[in-house]
Amino acid sequence: MSTPALTFEDIQAAAVRLRGEIVDTPCMPSRTLSALAGCEVFLKFENLQFTASFKERGALSKMAQLTAAERASGVLAVSAGNHAQGVAYHAQRMGIPATIVMPRFAPAVKVERTRGFGAEVVLEGDTFDDARAHGLQLARERGLTLVHPYDDLAVMAGQGTIALEMLAQQPQIDTLVVAIGGGGLIAGVATAARALRPDIEVIGVQTERFPAAWNAKYGGQRESAQATIADGIAVKSPGALTLPLIRSLVDDVLLVGEDDIEQAILMLLEIEKTVVEGAGAVGLAALMKHGARFQGRNVGLILCGGNIEPLVLAEIIERGMVKSGRLARLRLDVRDVPGALANVATLLGRLGANIDEVQHQRAFSSLSVERAQIEVVVQTRGVAHIEQILTAMRAEGYRAERVG
What Cα–Cα distance (Å) separates residue 26 from each residue in 48, 82, 283? Predict the structure, then answer.
């Protein structure tokens, strides 16, 4: 039996169903990212949807086609977060009872927002696959209609409407870079883009920790890990409907690491003043990591989600400041006399370093009794400024080194 195929007409019909019901998000050029990447970069801000993710497109596309009986019985979705919110939000708007099954590790911000839309949330399993098995069983037991996060033609058609908007807003785009989890987004986007522009290049991105689509396309044997910062695309196998489309319509699949994703999140925050989650940043991560691949191209990136835990974002910002030298830990060996700490603080202030944290160590030090060790975390202007501070402190007679 042949696998049903997604058509361009399906995506056009989905666009009609979604009109006025979701945000027609902007697709804007980024002058700064373009200069850094060596190509023209256009950002599709799907993190500006009401639920901060593209997922509500596919969810609404599916639910808008339910019969009256199916609506009355209710729907069930299995999701690590964004699909859950999309289904719950539009189900609430449409008066459809919704049950959402999420893995136990799902970010708290996504769990609480899903509950906030009136859905019944069931936390089950350590992985998405565990949650999916439980969800399928629950749907059968309760007679609920499953709204699959990616392996459904109506869902894929909804996601494909992004490409219609992007190419209408920025017709010069010749390359699309798209995150791949289960494959619903890239399947829909590639189908629409190829129909409109047969010569367009479509490139998928996965994390090194969850490379299922990369394995499938290139016959690789890379194993999946337990977790990634890009939890929205932490899927161990692409869908039965999405995989054939990935194989036939996607030109290449690139892999990015956790550090690449963190850097991209920080770049989007600093440069574009926009918050994205890990999955939403993998396109830019690929652009920066595989720069030669995109030189001179007009590249469209989909910022597919913005639901990131505030504490995770705070940690990424802090780690980014350390990597760039704007936050540094210095260790000083000083004479253990009254006023020594005050003198260090005064000198650092004079050198333009703002003290974040201080540890004054006597007992837990290998120094001789008359000396003390001071560790300070300071805010600086960057690596060159740190070196200036160390040089000046050594000139004042302090033994100073950077330790972090």
Answer: 9, 20, 17
